[in-house]
Inverse folding.
């Protein structure tokens, strides 16, 4: 793949230039609910992109499994719109002919199913759903999962959204609109 000039292209995209403000503090990766199953957390991904290593950026699953939760964006001390940069990287990857790895599609599916069940994200539920599809990864990450639970970084029980029925109706409506020609 020709990767020359991709950093310049990223910098020209809306919000893309903000990547230059990154101080590599790691707050984003520390806040990211998906970091444990990403090939690189957002901090490292940005370091690779800033260094022009787009082979690594695009061959990783990171931007594809970003759940767009915006946790990183609201916490970044430099005010970088990290989630928007994830979208910009996806667009750039697609323009170069890169498509997500199969596992990344499973993560997206697990996220969607977990969200639809309670109207808010239960990381534990999402992990359960993901590992049912990719059980080998569960064995690799079980000790990390236990540590996160022990430190309260993942909750055993997440209360459903108060107006869960309303939330489900919104999702149904969105699906209807999506299916319209
Ligand atoms: S939180 Fe912001 S400044 Fe810190 S590593 Fe992430 S993107 Fe960079
Ligand atoms: S928006 Fe994406 S990168 Fe940022 S914390 Fe959420 S999942 Fe992680």
């Amino acid at each position: 793949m020709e990767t020359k000039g991709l950093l310049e292209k990223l910098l020209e995209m809306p919000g893309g230039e903000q990547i230059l403000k990154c101080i590599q503090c790691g707050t984003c990766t520390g806040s990211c609910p998906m970091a444990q199953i990403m090939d690189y957390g957002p901090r490292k991904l940005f370091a690779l992109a800033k260094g022009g290593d787009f082979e690594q950026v695009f061959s990783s699953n990171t931007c594809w499994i970003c759940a767009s939760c915006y946790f990183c964006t609201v916490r970044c001390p430099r005010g970088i719109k990290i989630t928007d940069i994830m979208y910009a990287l996806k667009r750039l990857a697609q323009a170069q002919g890169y498509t997500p790895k199969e596992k990344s599609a499973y993560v997206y599916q697990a996220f969607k199913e977990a969200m639809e069940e309670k109207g808010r994200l239960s990381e534990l539920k999402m992990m359960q759903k993901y590992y049912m599809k990719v059980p080998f990864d569960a064995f690799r990450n079980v000790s990390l999962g236990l540590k996160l639970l022990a430190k309260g970084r993942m909750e055993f029980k997440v209360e459903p959204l108060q107006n869960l029925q309303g939330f489900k109706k919104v999702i149904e409506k969105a699906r209807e609109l999506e299916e319209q020609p």
User: Anything to note?
Assistant: Residues 22-28, 42-43, 46, 76-78, 80, 82 surround iron/sulfur cluster (ligand 1) (CB under 6 Å). Residues 102-179 form one domain. The longest helix spans residues 102-118.
